Amino acid sequence: MNKLFSKFWLFAVLTVFAITACEDDNGTTPEEELDAERWVTVAGAVMGDNPGDGNGGTLIYAVNYEDAIDPTKTINLYDEGEPVKSNRTARLQVSEDGNTMFNIAYAGENGGEFSRFAVEGGANYVEEDVTVSIAQYAGTSPRWAKLYDGDKTGIAVNVANIAANNAENEEDFKYYRGTATVLALDLQNVLISNYKQYEIALSEAEEAEGHAIFRLDAPVLNQAGDKLLIGTWMRKYDPATGDRESEWERLGTKTVVVDYPSLENPTVITSTVAFGDCSGYRSNVNFLAEDGSIYQATQRDPNGSHILKITSANEYDNSYVFSLDAALGVEDVYVQTWRYVKNGIGYIAYRHGDSDQSYVARVDLNNRTAEKVMDIPNDADLSLHQYQGFLVYGDYLLMAIAPIGKDGNIYVFNSQTGEVEKGATLANKPGNHYIGTF
């Protein structure tokens, strides 16, 4: 038993004696999160045509928490794991207690199908006899995330059929827009509880230049529970030809805000601090912190990735400037994914410059500082561009870190002290990579 697990076990024992005194309004205690028997699902992406592309599908395997953080254990995901229903890398979500997996199949014949699985250890994921397809509303490759509302709701988003207003007539050009879908899934009853479709307008001047919202992703609920904030990925089209432009002067980072739970009244807020997108890639990049603000990481920013702050009033705080280039002392930082933990501390996976190698840094949102974690592999084949699963327990965060085609480990980060410990070994196979712990 390593020293990290000893700490967790002590907390769990103390819980037995203190549970009646420590209950919160939901009848749970922080210490209960430290159950050594909680299932931890490890996910990996299988190579398709090229190493690291993840196009061969997704495998999952569950171990208990004690084994996940034990460096003497080995997880043979690629020999023993269970395939997930998805044509490409699945977008997975897990219940707060680790006992249920949620999945929306990405592309393929089952694309857009939502399903739920009971986690029973090892490769035993038992699909429940309930499914629902959201394909007719949000397409066969929707982006989605589970809200932090007690496993009640998932939000899927999509933008489709981007076209000019004058595509079929002689009207003067005014804009390129697609039809946006915002859809709420009832995760407990496995049904579509609400959805709305609309065009989301930018300013008249921005649209006249051909700017448009190309993708929505990374939805998060504000502290008041009355607004949903959704990240955007922007594109620009040539108004004269309709061709997509590859280089252009980017607009400030934009977030869509809609009323919740009605999903109505979409508006767009704009940062003047950063000029990248805030849609993430395979995981969320928008997180609600204890101060009521939402912190958001950007990508494809010409000045390097930033972490931006959206206040409880659902507006950008443009006085909050957190450049990761400046904080890390390198150029052209690109945040591949990140996860907030607590007390202003989070961890980012990033690359920088022309290199595809990934690194991890501990970020302090309050002091706007970042420090590269040195206790993980410094390997040119470490690529976290498809990473999506972080497991947060109190002060701790778990990540599955393995270079493409090489063995790795589960790493345990103490967000408050900065300490890092190595957990179970992750056995690998050529071309494959690990994409999360859940």
UniProtKB/TrEMBL annotation:
Keywords: Signal. Residues 1-18 form the signal peptide. The keyword Signal applies. It comes from the Bacteria. This is DUF4374 domain-containing protein. It comes from Roseivirga pacifica. The lineage of its organism: Bacteria, Pseudomonadati, Bacteroidota, Cytophagia, Cytophagales.
